[in-house]
Amino acid sequence: MQEKPRKTVVNSWNEWDPLKHVIVGRADGTMAQAPETAVQHDWTEDGFPPGTWGPYPQEMQDKANEQLDNFAKILEARGIRVDRPTPIDFSQAVQTPDWKQETMFGCAPARDLLLTVGNEILEATMSYRSRWFEYLCYRLLFEQYFKEDPNFRFEAAPKPRLTECSYKNGWWEDWNSLTEEEQFERAEKGAWLPTEAEPLFDAADVVRYGKDLFAQKSMVTNDAGVDWLRRHFPNHRVHKVGRRELLPWHMDTTLVPLRPGLALINPERIPLGTAEMELFRKNAWEIVEAPKALLQKKEPLDFCSWWLNMNTLVLDPKTICVEASETPVMELLDKRGFEIVPVPFYQVSPFGGGLHCCTADVYREGTCEDFFPNQIERF
Questions:
Q1: Which CATH class is domain 19-364?
Q2: Active-site residue (options: 250, 356, 358, 361)
């Protein structure tokens, strides 16, 4: 008797193999989170001056959910299974024995928390107290996957304590007192807010290229976090990269793989002479500079990068989802043979990101391959 196919398969090694199953976030209940050591917001013009917090306006939530739902329908129409997280009450205060936080945040940017490598989905540590419990939104899904896929590895990195020892005392005050050039000099040294007291990383600071993982040191990922990832994935090469930029965002607006041998680069962040660029050149990758976004004005409460035009979702090596208003990047990709799937998505940006940020892979067809056989000294 022929065996019936499993309901769920968890497997994804890179950012471009054919996508068959994905998680898309939700905007419900997202909060302008209460102050905490790691977060500093000044949204006075949008109704949230420093020291205040509260839910995003319902009209903003509705518009964002409309675009998220539309995105899910576009994917489903192409035969891709879409699952959604279960929002909880993000307005509630949360605490551990070490701290109390007056609010949580939300669950739109699934990629921040979830890193899929092969048949494993890894919950990142997270570095904000307001996002410490965000994993609860995905547990119903993972319980289902665990029952349906006997090969699924459900992992969680050690939950950090996030005491004051995890952050540099007075970092924000020092940073705000510096000139822009002094801030860039500090950025070059990787002197960000987290200390090395415990491993910290966001999953969205990791980009997957098969056997090679690129992990960014940032405001939410420290050296100890990169070291933990190297130990956790001993069969992979984990490369640590840094950025000369102010308050670095995640990797998916910096160096975006499109298919084997082709990647999109943010020209303002990675000088072409850096070590990671040498690794790409040595392995005959074409690196294409992204055009500047057409976006001229951000939505209220938007803390995301101005380079969300790069924040794309590859459906397979010939098909890619792009923010519908960003014609320059669509034209660039069209010239390289991609079928472009325009997706209106800028109403989602204030809730945590673009098309890549607000998704998390569950299953892409393909195996773990080595796309960088010619290595250089690890950086």
A1: alpha beta
A2: 250
CA distances to 15, 149, 155, 275, 354 from 116, in Å: 10, 15, 10, 26, 18
Q: Which residues contact 182 (CB under 8 A, 6 or more apart)?
A: none
Q: How far apart, in whole angstroms, are the C-alpha atoms of residue 158 and residue 146?
A: 20
250 assigned to active site: yes
Classify residue 173 by burial, with Cβ atoms within 10 Å: 0-12, 13-18, 19+: exposed
From the candidates 202, 205, 212, 316, which is the catalytic residue? 202
**Dihedral of the CA atoms 367, 372, 378, 379 (nearest 10)?**
-100
Rounded Cα distance between 102 and 118, Å, is 36
pLDDT in tens, 9-38: 999 999 999 999 999 999 999 999 999 999
Rounded to 5 degrees, what are φ and ψ at 334? -60, -40
Supply 34's token pair: 């209460």
Is 357 in the active site?
yes
Domain positions in the chain:
19-364
> Which residue(s) pair with 100 in the sheet?
95
Distances (CA, A) of 26 to 7, 275, 302, 312: 23, 37, 16, 18
| Nearest by Cα to 55 from 297, 299, 301, 298 | 301
The pTM is what? 0.95
d(CA 213, CA 207): 6
Q: What is the mean pLDDT of residues 285-293?
A: 93
pLDDT digits (tens, 9 = 90+) for 192-222: 999 999 999 999 999 999 999 999 899 999 9
CA atoms within 13 A on the CB side of 271: 7
CB contact burial 302-336 (16+ within 10 A = b; e otherwise): bbbbebbbbbbbbbbbebbbbbeebbebbebbeee
358 as an active site residue: the answer is no
Calculate mean pLDDT across residues 221-242: 95
CB 126 within 8 A of CB 202: yes
Q: Which residues, including other chains, have CB under 8 Å from residue 309's CB and lie 6 or more apart?
A: 290, 291, 292, 293, 294, 295, 322, 323, 326, 328, 329
Of 302, 357, 358, 361, which one is the catalytic site residue?
357
* Beta carbons of 121 and 127 less than 8 angstroms apart: no
